[in-house]
Every structure is written in structure tokens, then in C-alpha cells.
Design brief:
Chain A is of the alpha+beta class and 464 residues long. Chain A is 21% helix and 23% strand. Chain A is built from 8 helices and 19 strands. In chain A, the strands form 4 sheets. In chain A, strands 10, 13, 14, 15, 16, 17, 18 and 19 form an 8-stranded mixed sheet that branches. In chain A, strand 11 and strand 12 (319-324) form a beta hairpin. Chain B has helices at 13-20, 45-59, 83-87, 99-111, 130-137, 140-143, 173-177, 190-202, 251-264, 282-292, 307-318, 343-346, 350-361; strands spanning 40-44, 63-67, 92-94, 115-119, 153-158, 183-185, 207-212, 219-223, 235-238, 243-247, 269-273, 276-278, 295-302, 328-332. In chain B, the strands form 3 sheets. In chain B, strands 3-2-4-5-7-6-12 form a 7-stranded mixed sheet, sandwiched between helices. In chain B, strands 9-11-10-13-14 form a 5-stranded mixed sheet, sandwiched between helices. A two-stranded antiparallel ribbon of chain B has the order 1-8. In chain B, 61% of the residues are buried. Residues 1-31 of chain B have low confidence and may be disordered. Chain C has a 5-stranded parallel sheet, with helices on both faces. The chains are: A alpha+beta (464), B alpha/beta (363), C alpha/beta (379).
Chain lengths: 464, 363, 379
């Protein structure tokens, strides 16, 4: 025996409810299809409803005088199967008016999807729970920051929080340069507030014993008996991670290779012009172009002319060797949130200008995101350090262990320079470097630095 | 001849009118009108309109209602129920079946001082009148260089969600908002229905008054004493911080549903009811977008060249720097309104709105 | 016999009185040869048509009340006008119904389930007018009167292509367009008559005056009998008792044959009564008196013909057979309606245009992706 349920239909284009006025049948009455079973009153009129089922009335589900929503079950009618088998299981309940379009089997009173004749209901069915997992990366609400959409995207790509950027645009907006400058700052320079030390005299940072073979003499001598640490006046930082690795590498390098530094100033105006033209070129539209790129090509070119700077001093059990490499894994010193890392671009000598630019960009972004892998930092043959971003002209950088030379690119700024007998403002920079005097002598170092500088002065020499 | 003539067998209008509705000539407001209700009452949207229309008819004997089946039947949605009985058939007219004729004659009536309030029976049937509405009603004031005002209201039930046959679920608002010379409004609540119909009748400009028919039977509180907002104001109906949802008519309820679901997922949505489609009150919308940075416009109408497109473009222009994401639109598909079995797929529901919210937040 | 508004309706063409007796009116004179040529079989066929469609119509109304249909516009009371006129058409004719001519479409070959599917919300049309099995019957038009212009246009095409006026009634084509008293107020109908007269289309304007346009009586639509309007456009116009199936048949047959022969368009006003509501959304108790309905019930088209057939010796077995067929059709309709499937969502993108359109393609794709995102396992 099947129980059939009749739910209240929408009898007049958008009705939402009706009052049961009078039942024309009662439980136990036999009804045939189309027999009138109830009179209802809607907002528009009185309507008689005919039965959709044959059978015997089971239950009147709504009392006379009660108002129910369209879709609410109002009566059950039990179908009498012919040849009823007393042991047959009852069939699943049948509800007239199920939607074919994926709604729940039992429309609830007042809810349910909109079936023809079933009116509007107040349904708030949502399928969102079903599976949808939306990607909802929410950028930190930079409410109140004025910035055009492309600048917002740039900031997001570079991991810059717009709220931290000082805007210099005419509308008080953050410009592209503002974002780029901000991104190039080392993390240590993000904190531009000078902390107040009060009457602090010194800060002691303990160094782990046994750090590196060359650390028999500790770099930092502890002061004479120090008073117990005063929390207001001293901060203690544990040495671990990148700081630890860096410090041991520095010690190893500085106390193994005799460092000599040479430098020269050069008029880099033509490099700046080339960079500007490349930036405007469609070929370089999707990649970052900077003086560092030209410097990188310059270094690779100069290495071919003075290969010893690209060599490595290796101590073996049968004596020391100098291995001269005919490939350049160009290291780029990068200040990252984790500290100083030196990932390198493998086989940089094979890369076109564009591919080199790409590689530089990728290396920088990866480092900034803190995703540089150990393999990226191994196997370097020569390193560039860009101290120009800090505003420095030159330095005496420490060679990356395993290499024999490190070149520093200083800041490029306008200075008076003599051109054709006249003093003119030109873009001037300093190229400096430190070299392992075991491997290379003064003339080699100098020639190398001069070569690099000559490219910066005349990039067309790269056409050689 | 054993037959009475079939035509004569039909009862003449006058006879029937007396039998069931009261005096056949207009008796005006007079002593047969009950006093206007006061206080706050809960009532369905259609009754709120009925109450507002009654107030308008009582306030001025220049106000006329014109339409098909609005008199004796009280309108197919019963919005004008009882009004012909109360005010007579020279104030509440059952017109011949010709929409162009109704609008055209209303224009003439306005020319001699009447304030006609027209009912077009369903959105899909306004088109025979489209010529009179666009070339005449919208332009005559301009053509007369101000010598003529046309204080005519055209009430049109519009929108879907009632499972009806063709031409009964259209959203033609863009045709009218695109026509200079017309004002277009759409209340979403009974309270707004009550006040906005009266304000529309008071306006000296032609007003297309779009009534979301899916809301006719929905009840709400109506404050019969105090008008809340002017006719052409938009309103923030739910406060939020992450995304601004804007819509009109029946869609406002859908937006509130979407906002409730979004809240349970941790997203706070602000909802704006446009109320006036032409002119648009951008103040609250821009204020909202400047706080949230993201906006979704939702409408039943097909999206291509729709009202939502206009609002989106203007918001992008005026709140450019505040935007974290482009303004998104959720609309009906650019197909004819489908057979009723597919209206649930066609019409934007909470899920479609939330899909756009997700996209806005992913920027 | 005059109404309150002072016009004098002429006596329409009538052959059967309300009680079923054979009593032709003077206007019926010219049709008598045609009438007398009707065989018992043909008359019994009219009866069967009317009884079956009334049962179908009642069942469809019940289906709406049971939540299976969005809407049903009943043809109850108008069976004679529709059966008579439809049986007068020739196979090659073109038929433009409004939205209540269920038996017209059935007689022309349309499956009544196609109308059910329309009213259920599965389609906006339901059948292909150009499929021969549908007998050149166009789909329902819900915008009042719009189809009259389309019919006139077809008529104009028949004229331009010489598909009428050859003198061979087996081949010459004609158009019949159905509309109501309410629709007759729409501007489109006026324009359709203007064009039809101007181009002398082989066309019959068949107006079923069922006295009511929802709640508005015909006297609001017109201060003159409606068939007089045709004369205003220069076309022969005639009033017929639309509850007399024989008269309806005869008048329409002559009109169609005269039109197809090149005589120009004609207008017929069939006087009948909408016994039911306008549609299932309507409530006639709000605007018309029940004694009016009762007076028209006494002029019921089916009872009238039954009385006449009985007087001609039709057997009880015949009437019982018709009842049985009517029940079977109604039951079959109910079963088939309850078994109807849904339609895929993508259907709304089909046939928006005749040619490909980028916006449609884009949105079809979008909807498919959107729906798929709710399937198990989608992200």
C-alpha cells in the first residue's frame, strides 16, 4: 500500500499560502482521481481542489481555518494496490509535485524549490554546502589607501602591504615607483624608527663554539665581566638558522682567503639609457629590467677576459689546486626576510638578455618569498652584491666560500662628470670588488673591475 | 424565435455594477470613505499598495485609476480591490483591452488636469504601449517646453519567481530607465510600496512604478504615519564590511538571503536597496563601496546593456581608488525568459550572488 | 432585446435552437444546402469532438489544481464555435489560434499534450507549425491580438505567390485567425484588418465573442456588435451563433472558400460564452452573476447537438461510446502529464538566435561550469 501525499499547490500565479476552508472528505473515505476533496481560500479567490490520487483518505494534515504555505502537505491518500500481498513491504512515500530539477524530496512547509504550480515560497535553498570551496585569498584590507588597480596588483605580487607605503602620487595615491622602492628596501630598513637606547653601553651576542675551522679566534671578543642582563637595556638574540650559517661562512671565507679590494668610478649614463629603452621595448614588457641586469652581463663578459676571477682555490690531500671554471653560476646576494642568502643563476653565460632578466627576477622574488632552496645556493662561481640599493657607493665585501671574487654594484646617482671637456651631470656609480689574492693578482683584479666598468660606461661593447 | 439574443442575454454593465459594486457614477470621496488608517500595521505588499492608492484617491479627486480588470475584479493581483466600489467607475476605470489606448488616453486626461494612475496587467504586455510611453509620455513635457506636465503613474507588475507562462515574468526596466523623460522606481517592501506609490502619484513627472509581483503576498510592517525616505532615495538595508550587494525589487530579498549565508561563512556583506532606478541615488552606494572596496549588482533582467551595467560603470568611475576588485554583475542570462520549469536556473539566486561575492573577494 | 447601450444586434446565423430543434434563422438561409448535405457521420463527428475536448479541458483544469500545470485557460462553453470552424478548414489551410483553441489544434493534428507541456512550463511553444502532421497550425500567442497581423502576413504571402485564387478549392490556401472580444480592442487587430483588406488576403478573421475579457464585459470593448467592425474595413462580416456547431461550420466553410477563391478577407463573429474562468488564476464570482452563467448553460452547445442527434435517431450506444472515449482521453492526459520529465538547463540557450552568437555561447559555457562546480568533488 502506497501512501500518497498531496501538498498545497499554487493555484494562481504566485500565491504563497491558502486557508483550508472546508474538507469535503474525511479519513477512511474512498476517493477517486478528480473528486473534490477540499475548498481553500487564497488571496484571490475560493478554489476547490480535486484529488490527484485514487485511494482511501489516510489523514487530513491541516485543520479547517488554518492557513498553510504553498508546498505544505495537506492530506494523505492511501492507494489500494490490487492483489495486495500482506507481506509485501510498503513502498516509499509518493509526494505529488516533486520537482524534476534537483530539489529535496520533501518540500518543507514554506520552503522548497519553485515548481510549476508550487508558488514562490520563502525558500532559501543553497547548494554551497554541497561542495563549493571558493578560493578566497583576502588581501589585507587596505582601506583608505588610494591606489590604482595595476598598482594594487604589483603590490600584491611583490608582497608589499600598501598601508606601509608612503604615497607620493598627485592624488595622494601610491605610485608604481613607491611600491618598487619599498620592495627593494631590505627588511632591516623597513623599520625606519631609530630605537632609543637610553644609557646602554654594549650588546653581547653569544657565538656558538666550534663555528667553522677558522674561528679559533672568536670574531667578537666578549667584554670584561658584564653586569647581569638587564631586560630594558639589553636584548639577547639566539644565533641559529640563516644567521648561524652566514656567520660561519663569513668567518670561513674571511680567514682563509686573503681579501683585496679594488674599485673605480664610472659614468653609467649609457647603461641608464639602455635600461630605459629596454623597459619600453615590447620584448621586455613582461620582465624587470634594471642596471643590475646590465651589470650581470658585464660580469659574465669580463669573466671571459679574466677567467681567474671565476676560479676556486681548492685544498686537497695532494696539495692545493685552482679550478678555473668555464661556466658562470652567477650568485646574487639577496637580503631576505630570513637573512642574507646567495642563490645563483646556473650557466648564466648561456642566457640571452631576456632570459637573464627573467632569471634575475625569479631569483629575487623567490628569495623574497623565503622559498630559496639549498640547491639554488650551491655551486656558485662568482657573486654580485648590489649595495647600491642601500645607497652605498662601494664596499669591501666578503667572498662567498668556494669562489674567488665578489663584485659590488654601488648606487647610481647623478654627479658632476667631465664630458668632452665640460662638467656635466651624469649618472655615476662605483664598481668595487674583493678578490682572493691566492688566486688572482692585482693586475687581474684591476683589469676585471675595469672591464666591468667599461661595459657600464658603454654597453655596446657587449656586442663583441 | 425561441431564443433570446445571446448578446442581450449578457447583463449590461450598469445593471451588474449596481448589483455588486455600488453607485455607477463616481461619488468622489465624500462620506462613503472610511477614515485613513494610522499607526503601524503588518500587511502584504499588495494591500500596502491598495491602502496607498485609496489614500491618493481620497486626497484628490483628480486622481484616476485606469486599467484592465481593475474595477469590478479589483485587479488580477487584487491591488485595486474595493476601490471602484468606494470611489465609483469614473474614478476607477475598467478600460477596453488596449494598452496603447490606455496610455494614450491617459495623456489626454492629464492634459485637462487629471492625474491618471495606470495599471498594465503584466510586464510582458506593456509593449503595445511602448510607443505612447517613449515617443509621447516621455517627451511631451520637453516638446511643450515646460507648458505641459504629465503627472502619470504607470504601475507594472514585473519580475519572475511565480512559475508563470510567457510574458508574465519579464524585467523590462532597462527600456524605461534608458528613456529620458521618465522616472522609474521599484519598491521592495510593503512600507516602501505604501509611501512610494503616493509619492509617485504626487510627482509631476511620468513615473514607471515597477511592482515586484513575487512580493505581492509578502507581509511587512507599514508605518502609516511617517514617510521614511523620499521617492528617489536608495537605502542601506543591512550593514557589512567586506562586500556591497546592490539590487532592486524582488532581488533585495535574495541579497539579504545571500548575506545571511555569507555571514555564516565569515564574510560580512552590506546590502543596498536601490529603490529608484532612474534617477539613481548613488550617495549610499558610494559611501558603502568606499568602506568595503567591493561591489556586486544583482538583477533578474538580462545583463547585457542593463541597469546593473550602468550602476557598475558609474561606481567604477566615482569610486575607482576605493575598489579592490572590479564591480561584478549577476544577471539573468541573455536569452528570452525561459519556460517556467527553468526559471530557477535562469534567475539569480543566493548561490549565484555568492559566486560573485567569492570572485570579488579573490582579487 | 436591446442592451443598455442602444445598439441593435442583428439576428445571427443559427440553425439549431438552444433546445436542439432545427430552426434556421433568416440569416441562415443561404447556408441551408450546405447544412442539409451534412451526413450523420459528420454530425456525430462534431459531437464526439466537442465531448472529448470538454473532458480533456476539465481534466487539464484539475491538473492545474493538483499542481501539475502553471495555468489552464479553459475552452469550456466554446466547443461548437471551435469545432465547427476547424472542421470547415481544408487540409492546406493555415490556422492561427490565440491560446484557448484546444480543439481547433487537436482537429488539425496537434497532440494535446503539446499544449499541456506549454501550460506546464516546459516550453513556450510546444509544436512545430511547419511539421505536416501539425496541419499548418501555429503556436499559441499569449500577447492579445498579435497573431492577427501574422495571419495577415501569411495571407499576403499566399497572394504574392499565387497560392490562392486559382479556382481549385482543393489546392487554394486560406488563413483563419482566432481571437476574442477583448483582443479585438488591441491596435494590432485593427492594423491586421487594414492590411488584409488592402491586399485582399484569403483570410477569415474568426472572433469568438465569449462576452468577457477576464472581468470586463464586451460592452466595454465595443458600442457596436463586433462583426460590424469588419464591414468598416471593407470586408463581408457575419455573426453566427457560436454555440451552434452546424451554423459555425457552415458559415466558416463558405467564408473560407470565398476567401481562398480570391474574394478577399472575411470577418466572422461567433457569439458564445466563456462558461469557465478566464484561466485557473481567475475567479468569475467576483464580477459576474451566476444566473447569467445559468442562462448560458441552457444554450450549451453539446446538449443542443445531442438533442438534435437524438431527434435524428442516434443510438445510446453511440453516446456511450463517446463518453467512454472522452473518459479515456482525460485519463490518458492525466497519466501522461504526471509522467512528464523536466528539461535540461541548457535548453534556455537553444534557438535564441538562428545563427551562432558569442554571448549565448559564452553564457552556456559559464552555466555549465557553474553547475558543475556543485557536483561532488568539484573545487
Amino acid at each position: 500500500m502506497t501512501t500518497q501525499t498531496f501538498v498545497l499547490p499554487d493555484v494562481g500565479e504566485g500565491l504563497t499560502e491558502a486557508e483550508i476552508v472546508s474538507w469535503r472528505v474525511g479519513p477512511g473515505d474512498r476517493v477517486a482521481v478528480n473528486d473534490v476533496i477540499v475548498e481553500i481560500e487564497t488571496a484571490k479567490s475560493l478554489v476547490e481542489l480535486p484529488s490527484p490520487f485514487d485511494g482511501v483518505v489516510g489523514e487530513l494534515l491541516v485543520d479547517e481555518g488554518t492557513t498553510v504555505a504553498v508546498g505544505a502537505p495537506i492530506i494523505t491518500i492511501v492507494a489500494e494496490d490490487e492483489a495486495t500481498d500482506a507481506t509485501a513491504p510498503s513502498a516509499a512515500p509518493v509526494t505529488v509535485g516533486q520537482t524534476e530539477h534537483g530539489a529535496p524530496a520533501e518540500p518543507l512547509a514554506g520552503e522548497g524549490s519553485v515548481l510549476v504550480g508550487y508558488g514562490t515560497g520563502g525558500h532559501v535553498q543553497s547548494r554551497r554546502r554541497a561542495v563549493r570551496q571558493a578560493h578566497r585569498e583576502r588581501v589585507a584590507a587596505s582601506v583608505g589607501v588610494i591606489a590604482k588597480p595595476p598598482i594594487r596588483k604589483l603590490a600584491r605580487d611583490l608582497g608589499v602591504d600598501l598601508a606601509d607605503v608612503v604615497p607620493t602620487g598627485p592624488a595622494g595615491d601610491v605610485t608604481r615607483d613607491d611600491v618598487l622602492k619599498h620592495a627593494e628596501q631590505a627588511s632591516v630598513f623597513r623599520n625606519i624608527q631609530t630605537p632609543d637606547w637610553g644609557t646602554v653601553r654594549e650588546e653581547t651576542i653569544p657565538v656558538e663554539r666550534g663555528a667553522g675551522a677558522a674561528s679559533a679566534t672568536p670574531v667578537i671578543a666578549p667584554a670584561a665581566p658584564t653586569p647581569p642582563a638587564d631586560e630594558d637595556r639589553e636584548e639577547t638574540i639566539e644565533v641559529k638558522g640563516v644567521r648561524k650559517a652566514t656567520s660561519s661562512a663569513m668567518v670561513r671565507s674571511a680567514y682563509t682567503a686573503p681579501h683585496v679590494s679594488v674599485w673605480t668610478d664610472v659614468d653609467a649614463t649609457r647603461t641608464m639609457e639602455l635600461v630605459k629603452r629596454l623597459k619600453a621595448s615590447p620584448d621586455f614588457a613582461d620582465v624587470k629590467v634594471s642596471p643590475l641586469l646590465i651589470m650581470a652581463r658585464a660580469v659574465i663578459w669580463a669573466v671571459r677576459r679574466t677567467p681567474m676571477v671565476n676560479a676556486a682555490w681548492v685544498d686537497t690531500d695532494h696539495g692545493a689546486e685552482i679550478r678555473v671554471r668555464r661556466y658562470v653560476n652567477l650568485g646574487i646576494a639577496a637580503a631576505t626576510p630570513r637573512g642574507l642568502l646567495v642563490p645563483n643563476i646556473k650557466d648564466a653565460q648561456d642566457l640571452s638578455m631576456r632570459d637573464l632578466a627573467r632569471a634575475l627576477e625569479k631569483l629575487t622574488l623567490t628569495a623574497r618569498e623565503g622559498k630559496t632552496q639549498p640547491a639554488d645556493q650551491q655551486g656558485g662561481t662568482i657573486t654580485i652584491t648590489n649595495i647600491g640599493v642601500f645607497g652605498m657607493d662601494a664596499g669591501t665585501p666578503i667572498i662567498n666560500p668556494g669562489e674567488s671574487g665578489i663584485v659590488a654594484l654601488g648606487t647610481i646617482r647623478q654627479k658632476p662628470w667631465v664630458v668632452d671637456g665640460e662638467v656635466r651631470p651624469r649618472y655615476v656609480t662605483t664598481v668595487s670588488g674583493s678578490f682572493d689574492h691566492r688566486v688572482i693578482d692585482g693586475d687581474g683584479m684591476s683589469r676585471f673591475i675595469a672591464d666591468v666598468a667599461s661595459i657600464l660606461e658603454e654597453p655596446a661593447l657587449l656586442l663583441d | 424565435m425561441t431564443e433570446t439574443d445571446p448578446v442581450a442575454g449578457t447583463r449590461p454593465v450598469a445593471e451588474l455594477a449596481e448589483a455588486s459594486t455600488g453607485p455607477s457614477t463616481g461619488s468622489g470621496a465624500g462620506d462613503s470613505t472610511p477614515p485613513a488608517p494610522t499607526g503601524t500595521q503588518s500587511m502584504p505588499f499588495s494591500r500596502a499598495l491598495n491602502t496607498g492608492l485609496r489614500a491618493a484617491l481620497a486626497n484628490s479627486d483628480r486622481v484616476l485609476l485606469m486599467g484592465e480588470d481593475i474595477g469590478r475584479l479589483g485587479g488580477v493581483f487584487r491591488v485595486t480591490e474595493g476601490l471602484q466600489a468606494e470611489f465609483g467607475d469614473r474614478r476607477v476605470l475598467d478600460t477596453p483591452l488596449a494598452e496603447s489606448g490606455i496610455v494614450g488616453t491617459a495623456i489626454g486626461l492629464a492634459m485637462v488636469g487629471f492625474r491618471p494612475v495606470i495599471e498594465i496587467q503584466f510586464d510582458g504586455f506593456v509593449f503595445p504601449a511602448f510607443d505612447q510611453i517613449t515617443t509621447q509620455l516621455a517627451k511631451l513635457t520637453n516638446r511643450h517646453e515646460g507648458a505641459l506636465s504629465l503627472p502619470i503613474v504607470i504601475r507594472i507588475p514585473y519580475g519572475g519567481h511565480i512559475g508563470a507562462v510567457e510574458h508574465h515574468q519579464e524585467s523590462p526596466e532597462a527600456y524605461f530607465t534608458h528613456t529620458p523623460g521618465l522616472r522609474v522606481v521599484s519598491p521592495s517592501t510593503p512600507n516602501d510600496a505604501y509611501w512610494m506609490i503616493q509619492d509617485a502619484i504626487d510627482s509631476n513627472d511620468p513615473v514607471i512604478f515597477l511592482e515586484p509581483k513575487a512580493r505581492y503576498w509578502q507581509k511587512g510592517e507599514v508605518d502609516l504615519d511617517a514617510r521614511a525616505l523620499p521617492l528617489h532615495a536608495s537605502r542601506i538595508v543591512r550593514r557589512g564590511t567586506d562586500v556591497t550587494l546592490v539590487g532592486h525589487g524582488a532581488m533585495v530579498t535574495t541579497l539579504l538571503q545571500a548575506a545571511a549565508i555569507a555571514e555564516s561563512e565569515g564574510t560580512s556583506c552590506e546590502v543596498v536597496d536601490l529603490r529608484s532606478l532612474s534617477p539613481v541615488d548613488y550617495g549610499p552606494i558610494l559611501d558603502s563601496v568606499r568602506r568595503t572596496g567591493r561591489m556586486v549588482y544583482a538583477q533578474e533582467a538580462p545583463g547585457f546593456t542593463s541597469l546593473g551595467s550602468e550602476v557598475a560603470a558609474t561606481v567604477m568611475e566615482k569610486a575607482f581608488y576605493a575598489l579592490e576588485a572590479p564591480v561584478l554583475r549577476v544577471s539573468g542570462f541573455d536569452t528570452p525568459f525561459p519556460p517556467a520549469k527553468l526559471e530557477g536556473v535562469y534567475l539569480p539566486d543566493a548561490d549565484r550572488v555568492l559566486e560573485a561575492v567569492d570572485r570579488a573577494l579573490a582579487y | 432585446m436591446t442592451s443598455d447601450h442602444g445598439f441593435q444586434p442583428e439576428e445571427p446565423v443559427r440553425v439549431l435552437a438552444a433546445d436542439g430543434s432545427f430552426s434556421p434563422t433568416p440569416a441562415a438561409e443561404r447556408y441551408l444546402p450546405l447544412v442539409e448535405a451534412l451526413t450523420d457521420a459528420e454530425l456525430e463527428g462534431f459531437y464526439r469532438d466537442m465531448v472529448v475536448i470538454r473532458a480533456f479541458d476539465r481534466q487539464a483544469t484539475n491538473l492545474q489544481r493538483q499542481g501539475q500545470l502553471a495555468l489552464w485557460p479553459p475552452s469550456y462553453g466554446q466547443e461548437a464555435a471551435q469545432v465547427g470552424s476547424a472542421r470547415a478548414t481544408r487540409p492546406q489551410d493555415h490556422v492561427f489560434p490565440s491560446y484557448r483553441e484546444h480543439v481547433v489544434t487537436r482537429i488539425r493534428g496537434v497532440d494535446p499534450m503539446d499544449i499541456i507541456r506549454l501550460m506546464r512550463g516546459l516550453t513556450h511553444g510546444g509544436w512545430d507549425p511547419f511539421d505536416p502532421r501539425n496541419g499548418n497550425t501555429h503556436i499559441y500567442t499569449l500577447v492579445l491580438g498579435a497573431q492577427t497581423l501574422h495571419a495577415t502576413g501569411v495571407g499576403m504571402g499566399l497572394v504574392f505567390d499565387g497560392r490562392m485564387g486559382t479556382g481549385d478549392p482543393e489546392r487554394d490556401e486560406a488563413v483563419i485567425v482566432y481571437y476574442g472580444d477583448g483582443a479585438s480592442s488591441e491596435g494590432d487587430v485593427h492594423e491586421a484588418m487594414v492590411f488584409a483588406a488592402s491586399y485582399q488576403t484569403p483570410q477569415v478573421f474568426f472572433l469568438q465573442n465569449n462576452q468577457w475579457a477576464i472581468s470586463v464585459p464586451v460592452t466595454t470593448q465595443s458600442r457596436t456588435p463586433l462583426h460590424r467592425r469588419g464591414a468598416g474595413y471593407g470586408m463581408p462580416s457575419i455573426a453566427v451563433d457560436g454555440n451552434d456547431v452546424i451554423a459555425s461550420y457552415a458559415v466558416t466553410k463558405v467564408a473560407l472558400d470565398e476567401a481562398r477563391a480570391g474574394g478577399g478577407p472575411r470577418a466572422i463573429e461567433a457569439l458564445t460564452y466563456r462558461m469557465g474562468a478566464h484561466t485557473t488564476s481567475d475567479d468569475p464570482t467576483k464580477y459576474r452573476a451566476s444566473d447569467e452563467e445559468q442562462s448560458w448553460a441552457k444554450r450549451d452547445p453539446i446538449a443542443r447537438l445531442r438533442a438534435y442527434l437524438e431527434s435524428r435517431g442516434a443510438s445510446e450506444a453511440f453516446f456511450a461510446d463517446v463518453e467512454a472515449e472522452a473518459s479515456a482521453v482525460a485519463d490518458d492526459t492525466r497519466v501522461r502529464t504526471n509522467a512528464l520529465d523536466g528539461i535540461p538547463a541548457t535548453k534556455m540557450f537553444d534557438h535564441v538566435y538562428s545563427e551562432p552568437h558569442p554571448l549565448i555561447d559564452e553564457q552556456r559555457r559559464w552555466l555549465a561550469e557553474y553547475e558543475a562546480s556543485f557536483e561532488e568533488g568539484a573545487t
